[in-house]
Amino acid sequence: MGEYFLVIVFCIMGECTSIDGQTPYPDYETCFKVSEETAELFSRQYPNSKGQIYCLTEDEYKEYINTTEPKEAPKVGTGI
User: Order of strands across the sheet with 4-12?
Assistant: First the structure.
């Protein structure tokens, strides 16, 4: 199946940062379980925060680590 890496994008008061775990999880299910526990912990400790948690494959994680320029967010809707 491959290994999965946990990446957290965390925003509070308009400032965002990412946190990544360099130690891989053996499978997606384990990574997902840890992501749920982490989300619950962050929600309790930082109730006014927002963010996302991802379980990335090794290739996705390498791309994430090697990316130095921010990626454009996908556009939703038609805009104004």
Answer: 15-20, 4-12, 50-57
* Both tokens assigned to 24: 């891989």
Tell me the C-alpha distance between 16 and 12, whole Å: 6
The reply to whether the predicted model has a pTM over 0.70 is yes
Alpha-carbon span 32 to 54, nearest angstrom? 8
Query: What residues of the chain score a pLDDT lower than 70?
Result: 1, 68-80
